[in-house]
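Practice record 12: protein with manganese (II) ion.
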Amino acid sequence: MQIAVTHTNTDFDALASLVAATYLYPGAIGILPGQLRPNVKHFLALHRDLFRICSDREVDLEKVTGLIVVDTNNWSRLDRLALFQQRTDISIELWDHHLKGGNIEPSWKCQEQVGATITLMLREIRKRDCAFLPMHATLFLMGIYEDTGNLVYSSSKAEDAYAAGFLLENGADLDVAAAYLSSSLDGGHTDVLTSMLDSSLTHTFGGYKVGVLLVPVESGLTMLSSVVAKYKDIKGLAAAFGIFTTGSDRCMIIGCTGVQEIDVGGIMRRLGGGGHPGAGSAIVRSEDGEAVRQQVLEIIADQMNRPRTRVRDIMSQPEAIAAPTTAVREVRSLVEGARSRTALVLADGKLSGLISREECSKAKTASQLQAPVKAFMRTKIPLLRPDDVPREALRIMTETDSGVLPVVEDGRLVGVITRADLLLHIYEF
Ligand SMILES: [Mn+2]
């Protein structure tokens, strides 16, 4: 078995390269380090099931014969998986754009000074004509943009830019990328932020203070999303929207919010753009920024008045159900077949526990595998109510790193929310 591994405190280039390895090495599984950067964690809370990745506890490390190391060349950055340094029977392939400081000695390597490791892997993906999904293209693009500061850092190479173009041709979604990438402010951004803070214009929707500002900017400014987020925080607003005009025939709208009642991604989709519930953007063809601002105000008002989607509207039925007395061995094969890789344990229709593939793998000996699942299941489980909003499910999923959330009404299980349910709702596939 081959596994792909990358550095701890994982950024988007590392995650993109890990996922790319699962394309370039058929059968290989990407192993996610224990510690992820906050924006990567946030992204995976929703999208994890789209990729062939898992934690190191879900695989039998004894069975590993090949290691694909991406975006690092140093054992110490591999955390617990540095244990492979002691193994002499293992073949190591390395993909990295760091040339210095390495102590991993691979049997094969592709190591060149480009802006992002994913650029090197995309070279091979293109050569082999591998097919991938638009969401994978988006992830790969975030890897390039994050490591090259949107292609501005001097470490960026022409090949990084060509690779970004290739990804845009193949469905990478800039609205999703912008919603997850964070960036620092430069001088131009500070001017924009100052002019936004000078305005005291706010609106109230459903008791929430929302800023919707028309902001003339010089063309060429990117990553204005961080400016809008700062404006929202400093002013203590529930949500903020900037309508950026450059004197051309287009307006760029960027929004963000911290409250569940406002769905920024949904608002942006109605303007032809996209994003996720907390952040998003759209480009509208119009020379009249004030008219666009009025349109945004109307859409927000309309959205606040609409009956809201509840968990009950998007929940699904659990794929795998076991009784507390079912043997772990049996539950394990149930869990293997479930997309969410988790089984619910029910006693008389009442939820008594939850067990993931990772937790099943803690049972190793024959007697443990024969034992009832109740000895291994988790009983402290975050629950949803049918009337909760999907955003609450996303929040709990992000905080608890749980891919399945049971929905309980009057003490009885009525359904579950999985990552797939949330993906379908959020992107309206
Ligand atoms: Mn990198």
